[in-house]
Amino acid sequence: MIQPAARVSQVRYEIRGPLAQRAHELEQAGHDILHLNVGNPGRFGLHAPDTMRQALINNLPASDAYGPQCGIFPAREAVAIQFQERGLPATRFQHVLIGNGVSELVDLSLRALLEPGDEVLIPAPDYPLWTAATMLNGGRAVHYPCRAGQHFLPDISELATRISPRTRAIVVINPNNPTGAVYPQELLRQIAALAQQHGLVLFADEIYDAITYDDASFTPMATLATEAVCVSFGGLSKVWRACGWRVGWMVFSGDLDRSTDYRQAVEKLAALRLSSNVPAQWAVQTALGGYQSIAELTAPGGRLYEARRAVLASVAASRHLQLVRPDGAMYAFPAVRCGADAAFDDHAFASRLLETAHILIVPGTSFNIHDPRHFRITLLPEPGQLQQAIAAMDALLDELLDT
Known about the structure:
three-stranded antiparallel β-sheet, Aspartate Aminotransferase, domain 1, 403 residues, globular, Aspartate Aminotransferase, domain 2, alpha/beta, single chain, seven-stranded mixed β-sheet
């Protein structure tokens, strides 16, 4: 037997793990599965704007060759202009790197930064790629709690206690996946000050930056971290519903002099993979400069807004579930109402729900928390489907919690 690297066995990614594989088996057997596990807009009929498709098609003849390792100029310049418009006038295209989605860029940014044993502060719950990529690149993930009782926001003093001499970076996911929390400006300012005080890199995962609801307001971390090294991540996958196009970007800001060597190291690693997907990069300028159709989906009457409303109402009427209201992103992170010491198994619940109701969810402990009462669902289906799904969860919990 060929033995895989031991570190791979430590990677947790249940979003596409054994439960998703079992769902595929059930589909092959003829069952319809409601996929609440992945934020994949195209699966639910939410597609990229036609203008972006046209930009890709028009530039196909110019896409046969390898592109620059940091991305084509029009895409990088469009991202730089977006940051200038956000209040960062010093941003230039040289500070932008285009990758095959944010996932690739997370890996490159950590690989260029970490020595064995270096620590990265990551929120819990987190998007598990951050924990996995830290570990796979020789680092140690140190999780700072974002508890439901605090609206899934971190306590700044508790975060500060986790900084050690080996800490290299702080990760902030805002709007948050999986909880939907949107960080207040003052909290972001405090995190930025902490990074500056200790000379840490700030990784701002902002892939859901334009997806907020009601009065929630997104503040770019880069506008507050002017004295620290800040690396902001965004892309076409969520706001522009182009997951399969695999286009993401990272932007260096703040103390640019101190980040020069680090940025060059990331660019060297990018050169090793030659270039990212060239055809889809031509859509970046159109996406950022055109009409922002995501606003139609997040406003009252919009698909995402009404799906979120249906989840909030259904959970409020539930016999067994509770929920901290998600103010952003495209997920909800409900919890089962039972004691913290109750013997509830989120993986067993998710498995039973899949087998009996053909609904696929992600167990909460997959997001690097210890509390087994949570699970994540996406807000992408039609509101009626989500209402029916939560009713099915309640029915199953009637059975499980009475035994």
